[in-house]
Every structure is written in C-alpha cells, then in structure tokens.
Amino acid sequence: MVIVIALSLMYNNINMALWSAQRKELIILSNLEYDVVVIGAGNGGLAAAATTAQKGLKTLLIEQHNLPGGFASSFVRGRFEFEPSLHELCDVGRGDTLGGAGVFFESIGLDVDWLDVPDAYRMIVTGEEKLDVTMPFGVEAYADKMEELVPGSRASVADFLELCKQVVEGLGYIGASKGNPDKKVLTTTHANFLKTASHSLDEVEKALKIPKEARKILNAYWCYIGVDTSRVNFTIFAAMMYKFISGGAVIPKNRSHEISMAFEKCIRELGGDIMYSTKVEKILVEDGQATGVLTSDGRQISAKHVIANVSRHKVYSSMLEGSDDMNRELNARNVGAKGYVAYFGLNKTAQELGLKDYSYFIYPTTDTKKLYDSMSSRESEPILAAVCLNNVNPGCSPEGTCIVSITTLYTGDSWDDVDEQSYVKDKNTIAKKMVDYFERTLGVKISDAIEEFEVASPQTFARYTDVYDGCIYGYEPESWDSIMPRLMMINDLHVKGLRFCGGFAFRCHGYGTSYLSGNTTGLLTYRDSLEVTS
Amino acid sequence: MSDQLKVKVKALGLLDLLAFKNLVPNRKKIFEKASAAPVEKVPHMNALAQSIHPKRQTFEITGIKDCPNDVKIYELKSKHAAFFRAGQYLSVKLDIKGYKVTRAYSILSSPKEALTGKCALGIKGSGFVSEYIADNWKVGDTITTSGPEGAFYYEELRDAKTVVGIAGGCGISPLYSMAQAIVDGTEDFKLVLLYGSRTKKDIVLEAELREIVSKSNGKVKVVHVLSEQEAKGCETGFVTKELISKYGGELPYSIFMCGPQEMYDFVQKEIEELGLEKKYVRAELYGQINNIQEYDKFPSEKEGRKYKMTILAAGKTFETLASSTESVLVAIERAKVAAPSLCRTGECGFCRSRLISGDVFIPEDTDGRRAADKQSGYIHPCASFPVSDIVIEVPVE
User: Fold this and answer.
1) Which CATH architecture has domain B292-394?
2) Which of A128, B240, B254, B332 has the fewest CB atoms below 10 angstroms from its CB?
3) Interface pTM (ipTM) of the complex?
4) Residue in B3, B17, B22, B23 to test binding to A, most A beta-carbons within 10 Å
C-alpha cells in the first residue's frame, strides 16, 4: 500500500528571504519479513550477511552505529585518518596462494586494495632479559632466523611450525566436513591435530623440546590472543601463528573502514538490506524457535534465522530471557581483554623520527604469565603492540607526517574505579606512560611531534560497538573453551534458528577468524534454512 | 601413516585422544559448576560510556541572562548532566513548527558544574534557529540536547603549556569554560585570552572574566581587544600577529580560537606569519556554511538552481526541492524529515548518509569524510551542496 501525501509549505529563511518548496511524501510500508536477520555489522556480521545473501536468503543486517565494521573502521582528526584496531590481517594471501580468508573474500567479490606487511614483527624485551629481534615471514626464513638467534633451535622450531601447519589442515578438514568428520581420517591423517587439541601452548613447546630462548621469541604473538602461554590453547595459537608466518599479512590502503565498506557493497549487490543506527532490543522467540527481532524504533522484523554478531553475555543478559544453565555458562567463561589504544598523528616523518619498522611488540619481560597478570592493573608497566602505519602505507598521512598507534590490554575490573570525572586524567596517564616507554625503548622522540592525539579506551570501544565491558577480544580460549570444544558444540542451539558469529563465537577472536566465523555461520544458517523448508 | 606424522609429539600419547573426546564433557562440567547468578546487564565500561556520552540529555531552563549584542545566557539544570571537556559543545535539538533542526552551541559553564547537573549555553540571537530560541525559550521550559561533543579542548600530550585563546563576540563560550576549568583545577595550563569586541560595552561576561582572572593565581589573563574604541587597559584594533606574540610570550604556545568566520579570515593570515607549527593552531568550527556560492570551486552556473531531492529514511520515501546554495542537511530539514546531525560543519560525521544518485559539491576544507567513504559515495549532508537531482538515504534519527 502506498499513501501519497502532498504538502506544500512556506519557510522563512535568513539567507534566502521567502522560499517555497513542494514536498511529496511517499510512505511505503516496507516488507519487514526476512529469511535472516543479522545483528551487528562487525566483521563477523558483515561476513555472515554477505554469505546468506549470496546463498539467496533474504537478508537484513542491523547495526546500532551509523557505519559498518565495529572495530574495523576509521576516524578522522585534523588532517589524519586513523586506523582504530587492525594491526595486520593474516590468511588473505595473493594470487595463487590465497588463504582461507582470501578465498572467502574472492568468493563474494570483495574489492579491497591490500598492502603487504614486510616483516612478521620486531620484538623488544626491556628489563634484564634485553632482547631485540626482527622476525621475517616465511616458514623457512623464520626457522633460519631463529637458528641464527638461538643456535641449535632450528629443528625443533621447524617441527613446531610443521605441527602448526597440521593444525591448520586439521581445522580445514573439520570445516570441509561440515561438522561431520570421519573418525578414521581424523585419527590417522590429523592425529597430531587431535593429540594437541587439549593442550596449552607451553605444553606443546615443552614436548617438542624447543629451547627456552627460542620459545620467548616464538611466543611474541601471544598478545594477539591475550592469554598467557601456560593457559592459551595450542590449537588456536598454532592456527594463528602458521597463518601469519606462512602466508604473511596485509592491511587495507584506506584503513579497515575500506574492508567494511567493501563488505557493505557486496551485501547490497547480493540483494541484502542494511539498517544503520538501529538497535536490536529483543530477539523474538516462540516455542524455542527464533521468529525475528524487535528494534529500538519499535519495528518488529520477522525472520526464522537470527545470526548474532554479539557476545552471548550481551544476548542472554539483554536480548533474550536468560536461564540458570545459560548463566552458569556465562559465569564459567572468561570475557577476554579490554582494549586501550593511543593514536598519534605526528608532524614528522617516520624516517625523521627513526621509526624503521611497522609492527613492534614491546614487553617488560618474556614471562607471559607475569605480563598477563600485569594487565589486571592500570599501574603496571604496559605491554605495547605498536604500529607505524606509514612504514607499510606511506600515503596514509600528508607529506611530512606519520601515524603511530600504540595498543595495550587490560583484564577484569582494572577500569572499574574510573568514573566520568577521572576518566580523561586516567586515560591520559596511561598514554603518557606508553609514550615514555616507547621512547625509552626505541631511543626515539615522538612527544614533541604530536599534532593529533586520541585514545580509544575500553569505554570508547563500549561506546561505539556496545561490546561487553570494552572487551576487544572474545572469551579466553583456554583449552577447555577453545575452538575445538566450541566447534563440537556448535549445534547445541539454545534457541532454534539463533546462531552466533564474530570474536565471541566458536572460532575465537581475531580479524581473519571473525570474517571466517561469519562465513561459516552464514553457511550453517543456509543449511538450517534447507532443513526448515524440507 | 602419511608423512604428516613425522613430527613426534612425544610427551603426548593415547591419553590425548581421550582428552580430545573429553573436551565437550569437560566443558559442560565446567559450565555446570559455575554460579547461576545472572551476569551484569550493563557492565562498568558500558555504563561509563552511557554517562560520558549520552545520546540525549534533557535540561530545564532555570535562568536567562541578557548580555550585550543580543547574546543570552541560558542556565540549565538536569538530573544528570554529562561531564565534559571544557571547550565542547551541545547540539540542541529543536522542533520548530514541525521542522526538526539542530544547532551546536559551546558550553559556557565549567565541567565541574555538570557534576551538580548544571550547564550553561551562551547564544547570540542571529539566524533562524537562534532567533527562535531568543523569542521562545522561557524559564521552566524543557530542552533536549545531545551529549557533549567536539574536539576543541586542551590536550596535555599535544598542546603547549601556554594557550593563547582568541575569541570574538559569542565565541567566548568555550574559552570561558576553559578559564573556569583552570580556576577550579579541572584543567592545568596557562590561558591568555585575547577577546575581541567592538567597544567596552559590547563585552560579554566582562565582570565574570575579571573575577576569574583574580582567582586564577596568574594562570588566566584576559586582554580586551576593542575594534572601535580606545580604552584604558585595553588593546585597540584587531587581533594581529604583534598582539599574539606580545601576549603569547616565548614560542611555542598553542592558539585556540573561536569566533565568527570574518575573525578567522583575518586572524588566520596573521597566525601564518608567526611561524607556529600547524599542531599549535586550533579553531573551533564556525557553524554551517551560508555562503557556498562564494567558494572558489563552487560551479557558479549552479548558483540559485533548485533540484529534485528524493530522501529515503526509515523505510519511507520523501521528495522535495533542494537549493544548490543550501546544504543537503538543510534541505532534509526543510522537508520535515528527521535526520541525525551534530556539528553541521562536515567534521563529526554524525549525519553521514548514502548518496544513491546525483552530484553534490563538497568544499575541500570542510570535507571530513573517511577516504573509503569518498570512494563509496557516502557524504556528510551538512557540508554537501546539491548540484543535480539527488537521491539520498539518511539513517534514522
């Protein structure tokens, strides 16, 4: 039904004297019935919506913010456009050697201008241990470099990387088998994947007898997961490690907002709809089956399938009726690290400042347990993961300038004493400490070149994405709650038709994994839809 | 066995297969043992986000004070006023005979006062909306605003220890807030305020400024710069580079300016000759562009033209006429369509909308869009001007 109301109106304006306009209002009662509603246009939600739309399901993606991406975004201050969160994206690949994420991107026609990250990382350990190493991408090159740094380590490090490769293959097999793996294939071809699935990273490194000094360097990526090596599950670390080292990493030319906008374009071209600035208040359920969602502007949208790119904590505390069992599950799991990023638009070039590398890990010690524990207090010397964007993307800021961002992590109640009055001071205290530590460690000076400065604190991440308590990762992937047990329980649906994707979901967190989790969840939802109709 | 198994994970064995099988039962057991207490619905970081950045605030007008030159100070009170950074603004939301419009006004009061729910805005009654406010707002009325917005505030890590504030007319508001914040200890920097007025009697808040200076322990200095009068203790003329360096002292100092566009046009040229790094010069946004036809690159043949504009909003379609010399946002407001907006100068991106078809003119110096948005046809309607028929999708308010 279309109602046409024609109105003419007079309007007095200060600049244009009297001015009249004709306004015609066409009210189209939109069809608010979809096959799939995806809640949240973060990396997982974008990927899920693109997947279900591609499969021909009538898809609606609903996002509470006014732009897509969640953390994959950008913001402008003065003459700088900052990258809020992405350091490097692995598993994309180029040409004939596409990674898992790369294959998915190609399958939906995602158009992004990628730039290659040259080295894996530069890791600097201050304090008594004193370490400063730059590790290359490439399995052979990485093992060679390790041998150079820690003589006698090559064989065990090569074994480690081989084992990581087998984990990636094992996960690939589980994925390809669509949740129904052949037991025989698993226990023969993927035996090592199986064997290691219940172990921590430390346990596997010890079993392989990797020299202690080599382990320190191997473990550098631990902060991308945010759980110390005695607790982090080997499978999840191995998959990430291998994807980085074997396939390298990329970043998009126009910050990660470019990826999110490319997804938006794909979703629209594949026939999906998107609503921004719209919040989902409730997920509607009848007799244990999802029937749709209720939005903040009072619209009821029906759909048999709902994909939540939202944590279970948020869904079961706000969008659905909770239960004792669900509360137990939520309380058992550890919500991962909160993010803190300081962004600097500097009025000198990276070269002038003496910043030669792209990615820096700066740690006060290599003891990851100590580092993890230090994240529970804002007073600690922060662990730093810093990026100088111009060293991969020279055109990212105006001539004569560069962009540096420095990230650290916090856990638990470390920010609970911050109130609105103390907030600015509290967040800037950390930034000052970071700048000081960064300058001391690298022997550079950035503090007098700061033209633009911004901080994304846990509060900021909560503000823009509504993420639970400012967490930028998902649930901590200890072995008992890592990718394999989560995967094996993926069809234990508490509400029929409701599935989860994104950093809090079954694939654990990370940029590439969130895209893939959205893709998988989209495919599972497509399969569900076939079962519903048949 | 394939060569897949050439890596021997010696310390691991058959028990590991059992452990693999047990991953799910174990996980369920861990779930079962945990507390059944409900988790926090709004944990601290989300609660803090809501209190620092509320989407909306409502205030009661508790007092209206007349100042020179049609400036009025509105004293506001709320149950909870968000704490802010001295220099930030509130975007006032108004419904004027069905037209849903916004205007950004700098907060005049100190952040500390917000802790008791108090806030004040200084508004000069010129322009369609401000005149409406001057004629209609009464003590006891309730008004709706945004949360505190904008990035015109002192930043310790970035700015010099001394700030030369340059204010013209009603542009005193954000700098007045900063001066108070220095006195009450919220901010810690030295402020030298060069405040331009025509004559002595045109000065807004003169007595109040004198009191702030006396309480500031030498941290706040105010110099009145009168353009049409010579007076004792005041400078005469405009804010020139000589005046700035006379009062700014040793380089580097930061310059924060807020005033009408004509002031910027003059002062910015003066500042260029001071040899200050760009990082030390900040200007508050001066409101929406009202003279787009005077911009160099504006296609002059489009001046005065009107175009058909189709607006998609919240599942509805509206058609209206839009003038090339008014922003797309103003045209949306004229059509009585509710659309989000805050800064109205292209910077904040709150009105970000998808241009489905047609062309707009966007002045370079107010193009605050993200690079990827420029590539994918998104615009900030408040700083975009139609130069053809256009179809635009605006987010729901």
Assistant:
1) Roll (3.10)
2) A128
3) 0.95
4) B23
Between CA B316 and CA B334 the distance in angstroms is: 16
Of B328, B319, B169, B182, whose CA–CA distance to B259 is shortest? Answer: B169
CATH 2.40.30.10 at B51-145, yes or no: yes
Residue that has been written with the tokens 């021997």 in this structure? B8
Q: What is the spatial distance between Cα A369 and Cα A475, in angstroms, rounded to a whole number?
A: 18
- What count of residues does chain B have? 397
Q: What is the CATH number of domain A36-74+256-334+477-533?
A: 3.50.50.60
- 3-state secondary structure labels for all residues of A276-316: CCCCEEEEEEECCEEEEEEECCCCEEECCEEEECCCHHHHH
* pLDDT confidence bin for A17, thresholds 50/70/90: very low
- Identify which of B38, B48, B376 has the shortest CB distance to residue A317: B38
Residue-wise pLDDT tens digits, B50-104:
999 999 999 999 999 999 999 999 999 999 999 999 999 999 999 999 999 999 9
Q: Is A500 helix (H, G, I), strand (E, B) or coil?
A: strand
pLDDT above 80 (res A367):
yes
Query: A324-332 vs B23-33: helix axis angle to the nearest 10?
Result: 110
Task: Give the pairing type, strands A36-39 and A59-62.
Answer: parallel
Give start-end residues of each CATH 3.50.50.60 domain in chain A: 36-74+256-334+477-533
Is the CB of B11 less than 8 angstroms away from the CB of A415?
Answer: no
User: Which pLDDT does position B94 carry in this prediction?
Assistant: 96
Find which of A86, A161, A234, A329 to mutate to test the B interface (most B CBs within 10 Å of its CB): A329
Question: What pairs with residue B49 in β-bridges?
Answer: none
Nearest residue in chain A measured CA to CA from B397: A277
Per-residue pLDDT of A186-210, as tens digits, reads: 888 999 999 999 999 999 999 999 9
- Residue A163 Cα, gap to closest chain B Cα (Å): 7
Chain segment A37-47, per-residue pLDDT in tens: 999 999 999 99
Cβ contact (<8 Å) for B156 and A428? yes
Nearest partner of B9 among A508, A209, A256, judged by Cα: A209
Closest residue of chain B to A275, computed from CA coordinates: B395
List of chain B residues whose C-beta atoms are within 8 Å of the C-beta of residue A193: none
3-state secondary structure string, B56-113? CEEEEEEEEEECCCCEEEEEEECCCCCCCCCCCEEEEEEEECCEEEEEEEEECCCHHH
Same fold, B51-145 and B162-283: no
Q: Are A401 and A451 in contact (CB under 8 A)?
A: yes
Cβ-Cβ contacts under 8 Å, B10 against chain A: 207
Per-residue pLDDT tens digits for B27-55: 999 999 999 999 999 999 999 999 999 99
Cα–Cα distance for residue pair A440/A433, rounded to 1 Å:
11
Nearest CA among B133, B386, B48, B373 for reference residue A415:
B48
Report DSSP letters for B7-42, one per residue: S--TT--HHHHHHHHTHHHHHHHHHHHS--SPPPSS
The correct CATH number of B162-283 out of 3.40.50.80, 3.40.50.2300, 3.40.50.1220, 3.30.70.250 is: 3.40.50.80
Identity of residue A478: E
Cβ contact A195–B12 (<8 Å):
yes
The pLDDT of residue B126: 82
Sketch the domain layout of chain B as residue ranges: 51-145, 162-283, 292-394
Integer angstrom CA distances of residue A370 from A127, A380, B347: 13, 11, 43
Optimal mutation site among B27, B293, B350, B380, interface A, most CBs of chain A within 10 A: B27
CB–CB of A24/B309 below 8 Å? no
Q: Which two tokens stand for residue B120?
A: 């004040």
Q: What is the pTM of this model?
A: 0.94
